[in-house]
Amino acid sequence: MPKQPPRSLSGKVVVVTGGGRGIGAATAKALVAKGARVAIGDVDVQTAERTAAQLGGGTIARHLDVTDRPAFTAFLDEVEAQFGRLDVLINNAGIMPLVPAEDESDASITRQLELNLHAVIHGTKEAMTRFKRRGDGHIVNIASVAGKGGFPGGATYCATKHAVVGYSEAVRYELRDTGVEVSCVMPGIVNTELASGLKDARLVKKITPEDVAGAIVEALEQPRFDVFVPKSTGYITQFMAIFPRSAREGIARFLKADRVLMDAAHGSERVAYEKRASESTPAAEEAIAAAEEAIAEKAAA
Predict the structure, then answer these.
(1) ∠ CA(158), CA(125), CA(183), 5° rounding?
(2) Contact of 25 with 209, CB cutoff 8 Å
(3) What distance in Å separates the CA atoms of residue 232 and residue 194, rounded to the nearest whole number?
(4) In the annotation, is 235 catalytic?
(5) Structural domain spans, the chain
(6) Is the domain 13-300 a CATH 2.40.128.110 member?
(7) Which terminus in the chain has less CB density within 10 A, N or C?
(8) Catalytic one among 157, 173, 235, 273?
C-alpha cells in the first residue's frame, strides 16, 4: 500500500497540556514551526506564558490544572471560542514520583491516578465529543515505555501508563470509521526534570524532548497509533514479548532495566522535582485529604 502524503499542520489548532516545559514545550515549538496555532495549558502558568512568548506564532498560555475537570472543559471551550475550532489534543501533563511500592503514600498514589490517568480520560472524552461531531481530529496521549513493562521504584507510575495505553487502544477501536485519529506515545528515558537522577540502561540511552516532539509531529502528519521513542524501544518490546516471563525478567536484569527507577528513587538529584510534582495537582488535594482522613479514622478505630 503506497504511503500517504503527510498531512499539513499549517493552521491546525492544537492544545498541549503540561506545555510549559519539557516534552510539552518542545512539542509546542515543533508544532509552531509547522504553522500550527498552539494553546498551552499548564498549572505553572508563569512558565507557560514565558514559553508561549518565546514561541510566538500566536501561541497562547492559560492556567490549567487538568485534575480540575470542569476547568479542563472550560479551557477547551475557551480555545475553541478564540481559535474557532480544535483539531488536536495532546494529553501530555503527568508526573513520576519514585518510591518503593510499600513506602508510597496514598497521597502520591491518588495524585498520580488523578493527573496521569483520570485527566487523560477526561481530556480524551472531551476531544472525542468535539471531534466526532465534525468527523475529524486527532487525540495524542503521552504514555511511556513504562506502559509496556513494570519497573521497580515506579509501580504506580507504571500502573497509570499501562492504563493510558489500554484506554487509548480501546478508544481507538471505538473511533474507527469516525475520521478521528488516536496516537499513543511511549517515550523511553527523556532528558527532562521528570527523569532527574535516572541513569541510562544498557541498549537504551536517554533521548531529548525534541526527539519526542519530532515523533509526535510525524504521528500527526502520518497518523499511527503506536509511537515508540526511540523506535528501537518498540522493537525491543516486540522482541521481549516472544519469551516467557522468567526469560524476560532475566533479560531485564541483564540490561539493568530493573534498576533504572529504583536507583533514582533513592537519589538526591530528584528532591526538587519530587517537591514540584507533589504540588502539581491543586484540585486533587481534596480527594487526597479525604483519603488521608479515612486512613486516620481507620487507624483510630
Answers:
(1) 55
(2) yes
(3) 22
(4) no
(5) 13-300
(6) no
(7) N
(8) 157
